[in-house]
Fold this protein.
Amino acid sequence: MGGGQYDAFSGKGRKGRHRAMSEINVTPFVDVMLVLLIVFMVTAPLLTVGVPLDLPETKSTTVQGNDEPLVISVDREGRVFLEDLEIGLENLVEKLRAVTGEKADQRIFVRGDRDVNYGRVLQVMGEIHDAGFTRVAMVSAGPSKEKTETEKR
């Protein structure tokens, strides 16, 4: 390579200048994505249902469905929650209609605390059913591992 005609491409003629980076450094991007993944993994279980209840245990299997159900919870004191928002029983139907858009086939799960009056849970379910919602189900904690192990013996 004589003659110096290729000095512009060899970098010899650019003394004092920085060469342009020809590669993208993805390490900071991967770091940020991993941190976001960890944040979402930690917070996702907390966002499901915010009302802590002591659900009764049953041997029934889980109900499968394609759409996301609305969850109504009745705590130990008989207070009613739509998702994690406390709401009066007299306003429940109005809020349900606003949330579902008058869609009567919306799945609605009712979670009742183990210590709440059974009549209060039925009162809530009756209000929902009277409003025209037909897919209403109760939620339980499922069988505990201790009981299933003792039953196997």
Observations:
- The first strand starts at residue 70 and ends at 74.
